[in-house]
Design brief:
This protein has 195 residues and is an alpha/beta fold. It has helices at residues 23-35, 54-61, 79-86, 97-104, 111-117, 132-136, 138-149, 175-194; strands at residues 12-17, 39-44, 65-66, 89-95, 124-128, 153-154, 158-161, 167-171. Helix 1 links the parallel strand 1 (12-17) and strand 2 (39-44). Helix 1 runs parallel beside helix 2. Bound molecules: flavin mononucleotide. Flavin mononucleotide is lined by residues 18-22, 45, 47-48, 96-99, 129-130, 134.
């Protein structure tokens, strides 16, 4: 059942976009999030910028997009810590095999992975997307299991046609499904806080 449309109003959502073909679907997610009244900040990896331009996210969220450790906020606070601290909830969509593995192993070699290292104890939703063979890789599954144990919620992937032309498990869930997962998560947190 659909969760109330106002639940994300005023919620600070940090959207992480990593370098997979499904990055274009993340623009739709960002747009739908902004329409709920969520305050969306976006971090894109350098590889994500090969698929979609930061301007697309800036346009739909009316907020700057962060792509580098070294172009921090203008008030000279430390960007990755600031972004981590301000977020009420984090969503990574699409989540590549690479970013899942970096988070699971505490690797911090770009803005997204470093920010994630600083907010592992916050509500995090991960929407993986990759080739089915990559998804089935035992190393990827082990890393996934690690982030599940850390409390991260995983949405998808789903079965269907993949960018490489084959059918299999690896498609990123649609924006509506990810949005619903975020609403449910925030709704549960608000309920827990009021009890
Ligand atoms: C055309 C193309 C499509 C790709 N799609 C995916 C994908 O859907 N999922 C994935 O895990 N990696 C995909 N990759 C590989 C990643 O871009 C690569 O592993 C990269 O290092 C990920 O970096 P990031 O996690 O920092 O964004 C793709 C690469 C190319 C060239």
């Amino acid at each position: 059942m659909a969760t109330g449309s106002k639940i994300l109003n005023g919620v600070h959502v940090l959207l992480g976009v990593s370098g997979g073909v499904a990055a274009y679907k993340a623009v739709d997610l960002a747009s739908k999030l902004a329409a709920t009244g969520a305050l969306v900040k976006t971090i894109m990896t350098q590889n994500a910028c090969e698929f979609v331009l930061p301007k697309s996210f800036e346009a739909v969220t009316a907020s700057p997009v962060f792509t580098s450790m070294w172009n921090g906020p203008e008030d000279f606070r430390i960007g990755h810590i600031d972004l981590a601290t301000q977020a009420d909830i984090i969503v990574i969509a699409p989540a590549t095999a690479n970013i899942i593995s970096k988070i699971a192993n505490g690797i911090c070699d770009d803005l997204l992975s470093t920010t994630m290292c600083a907010c592992w104890d916050k509500p995090v939703v991960i929407a993986p997307a990759m080739n089915d063979k990559m998804w089935a890789n035992p190393a990827v599954q082990k890393n996934l299991s690690t982030i599940k144990d850390m409390g991260f919620k995983i949405v998808g992937p789903e079965k269907g046609r993949l960018a490489c032309g084959t059918e299999g498990l690896g498609r990123m869930s649609e924006a509506e499904t990810i949005l619903e997962a975020l609403k449910n998560y925030i709704s549960q947190i608000k309920k827990d806080c009021s009890e």
